[in-house]
TrEMBL record:
Transmembrane segments: none annotated. This is Iron complex transport system ATP-binding protein. Pfam families: ABC_tran. Belongs to the ABC transporter superfamily. InterPro entries: AAA+_ATPase (IPR003593), ABC_transporter-like_ATP-bd (IPR003439), ABC_transporter-like_CS (IPR017871), Metal_Ion_Import_ABC (IPR050153), P-loop_NTPase (IPR027417). The keyword Protein biosynthesis does not apply. It comes from the Bacteria. SUPFAM superfamilies: P-loop containing nucleoside triphosphate hydrolases. PANTHER family: METAL TRANSPORT SYSTEM ATP-BINDING PROTEIN TM_0124-RELATED. Residues 10-250 form the ABC transporter domain.
Amino acid sequence: MVPNSNELFLHLSNVNVARGENVVLHDINLSVNAGEHIAILGPNGCGKSTLIKTITCECYPIVQPETQVSIFGRARWDLTELKKRLGVVSAELPGKQTLTTSGRDAVLTGFFSSSTLWPNLTVTDEMRERADQVLTLIDAEQLRDKLVGHMSAGQQRRIMIGRALVASSQMLLLDEPSNALDIAAQQELRNLLRRLAQQGTGILLITHQVSDIIPEIDRILMMKDGRILADGSKTELLTARSLSDLFRTEVHLTEKDGFHHAW
């Protein structure tokens, strides 16, 4: 189902977040519509991953009268229900339990937010049908019965995207998805994300690799020191000068077939 692009997925107003004793996000103001395609750029340690954890309710803002957080129009969520509308793919590859799970079962765990299909979990025929649909969507039918631990890093990342999508295809949050992938696997990942974006899945991509930004992404957020420095169009912000300022080093930029490459 193509999301309603007029539906507000996320609204953050005057959001500050602490990790331990340190405030790592400062005065975050951000609105994102369902179905938007956005990249969040910034150097390591700038707060990108904490922002994702705030969106997924793994981190909570400091309580202040002016702070507002709304996800799909609601300030409070049962996390089990939220995960059915929000798919998250982290930078880390699958954990120990998932490695001994087949590709199809690993996708099915997305219904339960579990590491494997534990005996107490009930899988319905509808869930199995949906998992098969997702395997087709991500071009991973050949991984259906293969153990995740026997897959390449690129295949594992593909299955983790399927896991994130199985309960819903509204919004996909990706945190440094090309980590640990070789050049061929990175290209496969980008082709997959392009296809999902073209089919209506919203994408919120966190990266410090400019080459991860697929042509379908048209909005860029730039973060530094826990703050959003800029929020605008790719044409406006994806420039050598802006990137040089953001990463505090001289950056050269080129573009080909809608992809940008920086060095």
